[in-house]
Amino acid sequence: AQSVAQPEDQVNVAEGNPLTVKCTYSVSGNPYLFWYVQYPNRGLQFLLKYITGDNLVKGSYGFEAEFNKSQTSFHLKKPSALVSDSALYFCAVRPPGGGNKLTFGTGTQLKVEL
Amino acid sequence: GAVVSQHPSWVICKSGTSVKIECRSLDFQATTMFWYRQFPKQSLMLMATSNEGSKATYEQGVEKDKFLINHASLTLSTLTVTSAHPEDSSFYICSATPGQGRNEQFFGPGTRLTVL
Fold this sequence. Notes:
The complex is a heterodimer of chains A (114) and B (116). Chain A has strands at 3-5, 10-14, 19-21, 24-26, 32-38, 44-50, 56-58, 64-68, 73-78, 87-94, 103-104, 108-113. Chain A is mostly beta strands and 114 residues long. In chain A, the strands form 3 sheets. In chain A, strands 2, 5, 6, 10, 11 and 12 form a 6-stranded mixed sheet that branches. In chain A, strands 3-9-8-7 form a 4-stranded antiparallel sheet, with no helix packed on it. In chain A, strands 1-4 form a two-stranded antiparallel sheet. With 116 residues, chain B is mainly β. Chain B has no helices and 11 strands. In chain B, the strands form 2 sheets. In chain B, strands 2, 4, 5, 6, 9, 10 and 11 form a 7-stranded mixed sheet that branches. A 4-stranded antiparallel sheet of chain B has the order 1-3-8-7, with no helix packed on it. Chain B is globular. The chains are: A mainly beta (114), B mainly beta (116). The A-B interface holds A 32, 34, 36, 41-46, 49, 51, 90, 94, 99-102, 104-107 and B 4, 6, 32, 34, 41-44, 46, 49, 91, 93, 95, 97, 103-110, 112.
């Protein structure tokens, strides 16, 4: 069975500094990987996905993520954080050939401060 | 594009009553819709997968007679929480997949259910 781990419950960053939200996965075969963001009392918004191709994936709002097969990681990054980036971030994995069912990590609360 | 709506956005009901939540894909046809449940400060837990015109597939531990799912058209799925109790209070989120090679799920804004 596939699983996703987000080792940090919360990440604090100063505005303007780079941010990283960590994600590691466990799945057989080549996974499909996703990042979503959730603002309070709202549904999830799609940020980016990795299916195949370049390991560095660029997404919405200046976010990017790097797929690292050897480390089974898919960390979310942004070069310069904004206060408005403060939200709950979820990493998710979909196994190849597994339909569209997603398995989510436990989420990481990002707090960007002035 | 790829907008998913949910109605209502919040609902408060008395214990023992049933509540219906609608999930609509507004600008695309959704071959598959998913229903999730999210407790405070926790991740999304998949409850069931719904394909248009067929019975929903429920995850282990989810009572199909309590959480009735109907996917009558390619743009509408409903979740009915029957005989709701306070422990059913939660944030319910649906998502929809366009299919046809598009892999991402598009999520609705969620419905906050509070059972008194």
